[in-house]
Design goal:
about 120 residues; mainly beta; seven-stranded mixed beta sheet; 11 strands; about 0% helix; globular
């Protein structure tokens, strides 16, 4: 079973940037799509962005134009470049992978999850 290790989270001021990384223990090309989700206490998990193995990307409306998802298959690593951060972006960010075809927003369709990395944006 693949394992993911997220990193790059931290504390940043509003308007700042962070780059999250998600290192996979095996070939990411084995998975049709990989993505980022986030969650804050008391709220439901929220889709952020996803990328398919041929490069198709989708984003949540709340992050479109500010966040960029990318993958480096040679390094088995997924990235999330986050710019113009807002306090509402504060959450634990998780990477996830799905085996079945289609790049989707529903977390229920993702099979494997990382442990998460905390992102805190101060106002």
């Amino acid at each position: 079973q693949v394992q993911f290790v997220e990193s790059g989270g931290g504390l940043v001021q509003s308007g700042g940037s962070l780059r999250l990384s998600c290192a996979a223990s095996e070939l990411m090309t084995d998975y049709y799509a990989i993505g980022w989700f986030r969650q804050t206490p008391g709220k439901e998990r929220e889709f952020v962005a996803a990328i398919g193995w041929i490069g198709i990307t989708i984003y949540a409306d709340s992050v479109k134009g500010r966040f960029t998802i990318s993958r480096d298959n040679a390094k088995n690593t997924l990235y999330l470049q986050m710019n113009s951060l807002k306090p509402d972006d504060t959450a634990v960010y998780y990477c996830a992978a799905k085996v079945s075809p289609a790049v989707v927003r529903s977390g229920d369709e993702y099979d494997y999850w990382g442990q998460g990395t905390q992102v805190t944006v101060s106002s």
